[in-house]
Amino acid sequence: MIRFEQVGKVYADGTTAVDGLSFEVAEGELVTLVGPSGCGKTTTMMMVNRLIEPTTGRILVDGSDIATVDPVELRRRIGYVIQQVGLFPHRTVLDNTATVPALLGWKRARARARAAELLELVGLDPAVYGGRYPAQLSGGQRQRVGVARALAADPPVLLMDEPFGAVDPVVRERLQNEFLALQSAVRKTILMVTHDIEEAVRMGDRIAVYGQGRIEQLDTPRAVLGTPATPYVAGFVGADRGLKRLSVTAVEAADLEQPPVAPLGESASRAAARLRDAGARWAVVTDGGGALHGWVSAGALAHAGGRGTVGDLARRMDAWVPLGAPLKQAFSEMLQHDAGWVAVLDGDRFLGVLTPARLHEALRRSVDADARGLARDEVAFDSVPES
Ligand SMILES: Nc1ncnc2c1ncn2[C@@H]1O[C@H](COP(=O)(O)OP(=O)(O)OP(=O)(O)O)[C@@H](O)[C@H]1O
Question: Is 21 in the pocket of ligand 1 (CB under 6 A)?
């Protein structure tokens, strides 16, 4: 846990970088600090590992006032990931990753084994990359090594300053997703600085939106996008904040449509008759246990001339998302597979489909629910006026 109590920093030349900061990052929580250049984000973060000393107030890490902890000792308990990564150029990837365990006095074999494990965790095969030097890696690979190194000594707290800033947007999104998956396993307490609101929304359990030297709003991404606390925050999150909500609004069971379902073994003629009666143009195909197999069109069933089973005519269904995935992922699957709907699964069990109309509905209900302080399932489908 990291706790700021009335923390301020005035630099020697009289610049007030931050003033009266009081907030907490709970254990296992990831808080993103976002705001324009020069608003005090980096100063805030660097005070936590005492690379910068506050002029007023105090900061507690896991209950102890860090002013009373030896800075070197403190930094060993706090992983630090920075944009320039800061790998040692003349040390191999494995040795770079093992830096902190080595400083902590671990035996060489143990430190290297731990480093190899961490490289594996961030998606770098230690047998391939462990012996390379930083210059022999791509930008994205270097960033992964930076993350592996910060995690190597298993510190409870991580500070990340624009950790994915130096790579192109595609690699950045992949690294962000990988890091989120990693975080759901390791549950570190994290402060992450970014100037990119998209990144803040995607990564943060909560977002602190900075104005000049102070926090204007500290809340969940949904709340910041849905009900910005001040005109400044509204301006900062942008006019397209409705679109950004796609990233933070989950697919729920109530959003789904239930098309006809045909099991693999059903005869084509029976399925054709059912679809005709239902006026449906296609059906979802499941195996005997309710798992998604694919889909079949009414046309294909009708043309089969009464022969064969649904399984003979079924096509693959690649557009699917797990229940709870962000709406953005569902939308992206639709576009990528040029599909008019995506299947939604719980494990491999088919639950229903999300159509563009239902996606739009889910988004509008979520906006309405936030505005009224309700859960989404408390907002009736027809309560949202057509825009
Ligand atoms: N050593 C220093 N001496 C004087 N002023 C400083 C010093 N370091 C930072 N500042 C000033 O403090 C303010 C906050 O800087 P800080 O680096 O914390 O901002 P930031 O939000 O991280 O910005 P960026 O997104 O550009 O990195 C700025 O006005 C900056 O010019």
Answer: no
